[in-house]
Structures are given as structure tokens and as C-alpha cells.
Amino acid sequence: MSDTEEVEGEGEAHRPQFKAPKIPDGEKVDFDDIQKKRQNKDLVELQGLIDAHFEHRKKEEEELIALKERIEKRRAERAEQNRIRSEKEKERAARREEERLKREEADAKKKADEDAKKKSAQTATVLPDTGLMQQKHTLTLKSLLRQLSFTVCLFTQDVPQSTARSH
């Protein structure tokens, strides 16, 4: 035997051997009826598979629509949250800026007050009697004005009551 004959012999040994279906003796076999029953069975099975497929597809489409709606809803919520967060951040930044400006203004005012105190202290040390002299000068001016108005009234013979009482 050659190598090819051995392979062919082994191939036949591995094939399953089918038995021919037994046909009952004496009965008439209607192959058309068997074929119709098989087609009807296959049609019913195929119709069931198609229905199951479309039901499954319908459920998946509903889930997909629900998922898209959830995604859009979540996206809208996030946008709203981001908008609110940015508004709060702007308000916070404005408050910080306002507080900073107030602090700077208070510091500038404090510095100006300190500078004014330093100037007045320096002038007070340089000219210690200046404040007193200015006060005396103001008093003398006031008294001079009163006397002048009194003398003017005497010459006009119209003495106001308030001025006359004060002297």
C-alpha cells in the first residue's frame, strides 16, 4: 500500500456512519407532508427568533434613548452647576477686591493721619508757641470786630440789643 491509500482508509474510519431512517413497511410515506411539517416548524422557529430579536432590539433602543436623556440631563445639571460656581467665584473675587481696596484705603488714611501727626509734632517742637499765638490772634480779631461793630452802632444811634448785652 502507498501512503495515500493509508490516509484514505483512515479518513473513512473517522467518519461517523449514518443509518438510513427506517421506513415502516406497508405504510405509505408522504414526503410532501413531511416537508411541509418541517417547513412549518422551521418557519415557526424562525418567526420566534425574529420576534425575540426585535423585542431585544426594541429594549436596547429604549435603553439607548433613556441613556441619551440621562446624559443630556446630567450635562445640563453640570452646566448649571458650573454657571453657579463661576458666579460664586466672581462674587468671591469681587468681595476680595473690595476688601483689598478698603484695606488699602484704610492704610492710606492711617498713613496720612500719622504723617499729619508727625508734621504737627515737628512744627510744635520747632515753634512751641505758634498754636497759642494763633489762638490769641483769633481772639483779638474777634474782640476787635465786636468793638468795631459797637462803635459803629454808637455813631448811628442804633445799638443792637445782642451786642449791647454782651458788653
From TrEMBL:
Keyword hit for Phosphoprotein: yes
Gene Ontology molecular-function annotations: tropomyosin binding; troponin C binding; troponin I binding
Alphabetical UniProt keywords: Acetylation, Phosphoprotein
Keyword Electron transport appears in the UniProt entry: no
InterPro entries: TNNT, Troponin
Superkingdom to which the source organism belongs: Eukaryota
Chain positions covered by the region annotation Disordered: 1-34, 75-130
Pfam family, one: Troponin
Compositionally biased tracts (Acidic residues): 1-10
Annotated GO biological process: muscle contraction; regulation of muscle contraction; sarcomere organization
Entry function: Troponin T is the tropomyosin-binding subunit of troponin, the thin filament regulatory complex which confers calcium-sensitivity to striated muscle actomyosin ATPase activity.
Name of the protein in question: Troponin T, fast skeletal muscle
Organism encoding this protein: Salmo salar (Atlantic salmon)
Gene of this entry: TNNT3
